[in-house]
Specification:
Strand content: 35-45%
Distance between the termini: 23 Å
Shape: globular
Radius of gyration: 18 Å
Strand order of the largest sheet: 3-8-7
Helix content: 10-25%
Structural class: mainly beta
Number of strands: 8
Number of helices: 3
Order of helices and strands: EEEHEEHEHEE
Largest sheet: 3 strands, antiparallel
Length: about 110
């Protein structure tokens, strides 16, 4: 949410589909099925940290020098992402298990 001062009136602008905070911290959350999460843990997928999504493993992504594509181990290693990581899960009403994971910390 953003506050705008237009002609002496304080207006609020709400952007849909956007998570915003007024803190100087960084937040990331990715949600996926338990099946995709297990594939990532087992080394079958990469985490694309720029698009915040699990992606297929390809030779181009394996030779990534910018650390855009991370294995599960790299994601949880402080030298690749300078933030704390988290993961949690829940079951939907239909019984599907969904995994949420991401990172958070101070924006330097």
């Amino acid at each position: 949410m953003m506050k705008l001062n237009i002609g002496g009136f304080m207006m609020r602008q709400i952007r849909r589909g956007t998570f915003e905070t007024n803190s100087s911290s960084v937040h990331s959350i990715t949600m996926c099925s338990e099946t995709d999460y297990d594939k990532w843990v087992n080394g079958e997928l990469f985490y694309d940290r720029w698009d915040e999504a699990l992606v297929e493993k390809t030779p181009e992504r394996e030779s990534d020098e910018d650390h855009q594509y991370l294995t599960y181990e790299q994601f949880n290693d402080y030298k690749y992402i300078d933030y704390e990581t988290f993961e949690d899960s829940y079951k939907t009403a239909s019984g599907e298990k969904v995994i949420a994971f991401g990172y958070y910390g101070e924006n330097r």
